């Protein structure tokens, strides 16, 4: 028996595989292998960094420690559903394929025996297999009739990768659930394209469903009120800098009020100090030489350059 090593655990299982005849099962197995190949290639996983074990209706894939879980997650969430959609679009009704998927991580020991195939041992692998076979994951896929696959991640993957919000991984689309297995309850995180509440929360099985729905509605109303207050504050806040996306602003004509004020200022007589003391002898305004006065395009109306 070898030493345990840390591996990323990726599990696939085909829905209602045993209800198909042998010919269709063979087609589904080939299609599953092709989908897994393309998913891992897109994630940058080389053949030397993966171990695969055929399980008939599914597959166990172990990835080396050098493989980025973020890349695998992005590929599972984006490419794998598209590949399944392409398959189902061309396949007959009896060959439609939908997948349950689990992404986990943990310590795995290789213990091959002579004359047998496989030989991987580990508590973390056992727990991941129980998540794959759980009623919670089966029910999630059965309820999502418009989706080709459903993904569940272990707590270790969520805490180490998902919750940090790396590129292409949105934690608000994962919901925490308690999965009942034969030896207890496991905490896991179920992905949904439509998301759950803003922050994943623990689902308490002892709490009635009506109470959970009421608390969610109250939280939503509180969030709506906060958003409304924020919008009012944004409207009352004075405008800041204005960015012009179509070039610098052109010099526009001054407003009517500013024009009348300027006109009045131009018509006022210019008087010397001596003339000011003698109001009976007003002087006419001194004409301004041509080209002396000009408008200044400085952005503020009524400015002059002398």
Beta-strand content estimate: 15-25%
Series of secondary-structure elements, N-terminal to C-terminal: EHEEHEEHHEHEEHHHEE
Q: Detail the poorly predicted runs.
A: 197-249, 251-268, 270-279, 291-306
The radius of gyration is 36 Å
Mean pLDDT over all positions: 76
**Shape annotation:** globular
Number of helices: 8
Q: Report the span from N to C terminus.
A: 95 Å
Beta strand count: 10
Characterize the largest beta sheet: strand count, sense, and whether it forms a barrel: 8 strands, mixed
The helical percent reads: 25-40%
Supply the helix-strand structural class: alpha+beta
Give your account of this protein's structure.
The protein is α+β, with helices and mostly antiparallel strands. It contains eight helices and ten strands. The strands form two sheets. Strands 1, 2, 3, 4, 5, 6, 7 and 8 form an eight-stranded mixed sheet that branches. Strands 9-10 form a two-stranded antiparallel ribbon. The C terminus is likely disordered.
Summarize the structure.
The protein has 306 residues and is an alpha+beta fold. The protein has helices at residues 22-42, 69-90, 123-132, 135-143, 155-160, 209-236, 256-267, 273-277; strands at residues 5-14, 50-54, 58-63, 99-110, 120-121, 149-154, 174-181, 184-191, 294-295, 304-305. A hairpin with a 2-residue loop joins strand 7 (174-181) and strand 8 (184-191).
What's the helix and strand layout?
Elements: E1 5-14, H1 22-42, E2 50-54, E3 58-63, H2 69-90, E4 99-110, E5 120-121, H3 123-132, H4 135-143, E6 149-154, H5 155-160, E7 174-181, E8 184-191, H6 209-236, H7 256-267, H8 273-277, E9 294-295, E10 304-305
Parallel strand pairs: 4-6
Antiparallel strand pairs: 1-3, 1-4, 2-3, 4-5, 6-8, 7-8, 9-10
């Amino acid at each position: 028996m070898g030493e345990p090593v840390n591996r990323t655990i990726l599990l696939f299982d085909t829905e209602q595989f045993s209800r198909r005849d042998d010919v269709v099962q063979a087609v589904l197995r080939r299609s599953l292998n092709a989908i897994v190949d393309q998913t891992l290639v897109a994630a940058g996983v080389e053949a030397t960094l993966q171990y695969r074990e055929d399980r008939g209706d599914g597959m166990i894939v172990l990835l080396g420690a050098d493989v980025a879980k973020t890349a695998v997650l992005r590929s599972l969430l984006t490419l794998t559903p598209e590949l399944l959609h392409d398959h189902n679009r061309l396949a007959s009704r009896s060959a439609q394929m939908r997948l349950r998927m689990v992404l986990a991580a943990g310590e795995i020991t290789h213990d091959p025996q002579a004359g047998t195939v496989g030989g991987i041992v580990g508590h973390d692998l056992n727990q991941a297999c129980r998540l794959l076979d759980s009623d919670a994951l089966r029910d999630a896929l059965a309820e999502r009739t418009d989706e080709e696959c459903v993904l569940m991640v272990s707590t270790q993957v969520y805490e180490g990768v998902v919750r940090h919000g790396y590129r292409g991984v949105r934690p608000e689309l994962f919901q925490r659930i308690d999965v009942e297995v034969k030896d207890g309850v496991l905490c896991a995180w179920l992905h949904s394209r439509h998301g759950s509440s803003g922050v994943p929360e623990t689902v308490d099985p002892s709490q009635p469903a009506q109470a959970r729905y009421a608390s969610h509605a109250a939280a939503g109303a509180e969030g709506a009120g906060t958003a409304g207050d924020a919008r009012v504050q944004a409207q009352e806040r004075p405008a800041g800098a204005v960015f012009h996306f179509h070039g610098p602003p052109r010099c526009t004509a001054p407003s009517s009020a500013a024009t009348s004020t300027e006109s009045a200022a131009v018509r006022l007589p210019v008087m010397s100090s001596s003339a000011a003391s003698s109001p009976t002898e007003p002087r006419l305004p001194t004409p301004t030489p041509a080209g002396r006065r000009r408008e200044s395009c400085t952005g503020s109306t009524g400015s002059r350059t002398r």
